[in-house]
Amino acid sequence: MSGRGRSKGSPPSCQRTRDVNMIPGMLISLCNWRFTVMCRFPSSLLSGIVLSVLLAPCASLSAAPATVAFDQSAQDVICYSFVEVTLRVDKPDVSNPFTDVSVEGQFALSGVQAVNVDGFCDGADGSLFRIRFMPAKAGDYDYSVTYRQGTYEAAHTGRFTARNAGRRGLIRVDKEHPWHFLWEGTGEHYFWNGTTTYWLLGWDDETIRGTIDRLARLKVNRLRVAINGRVKDGRAWYENVFPTEKFLFRMNPWVAQRSDSVENPGFDVTRFNLPHWQKIERTLQYAREKDTAISIIFYVDGARPGVDPFCKARMGQEDEQRYYRYAVARLA
Hints:
- The chain is α+β, with helices and mostly antiparallel strands.
- Helices cover 23% and strands 31% of the residues.
- It folds into two domains: 161 residues, no CATH class; 97 residues, Immunoglobulin-like, CATH 2.60.40.10.
- Strands 3-10-9-5-6 form a five-stranded mixed sheet.
């Protein structure tokens, strides 16, 4: 996966350097602020307000769903495909499922050290989560998956078998000829022939599939595809390309207050725009069927207003890291 692309003429409103930092949560400060505001009410109202305000954090900290059901996609899995465990949450009561819930798993081929894997939320109301694992080697696998919400935990264990079926798999460097590439699953040589299609996801699904088909016929087997970007039209790159009914120069990986706005979408970076991510998945799935590799570009022209909601001031902090972790958990 790649970071920010930039074209000529991009304004320098959000240029940044890399500096990853984490910041602690603000629960105590928030509670103190609430108490200060609460004390400004007349004393006759104070007791009721104290009760309602102070009980709210306690309720959220002790909240728990009714049940969490785990469902495994298959008992037999083809190598270089993936097994998926779906978590269905009955009566979800989480405030924000993207920030307040974690799903973690450990997957291990028999006799081999386990691999840690993150799951992801696929239901805006907190009712649906998924976790995926791609076996590269044949054999029997054991796994465990844990759902955590505050002090509540639900755990599940399972097993599946991975079988070789001739899938080409991952692209690797040829160890004997390090200037060349191989398909790991079959050992065939991979002749890298790539192109850039930053705005592929701006199209409708039918056009996306047709584009991948056309490029595959031309033996193009690697595409660079952006998942976040926005600009008025193609004249930003001196090209007369304009939005149509089937194409937009706007991609919204997060929920946006003003999704149609180019420069001020009002992203809520704590909540992901699930239809957009589901469209990304459909694109990757179709490309895989054509043996076409996709390189994910997190930002195209990140310096343009409206593209990068973090900019230099919030670069590398928890919200931006969540963006990368979510993409890896869902797409990698």
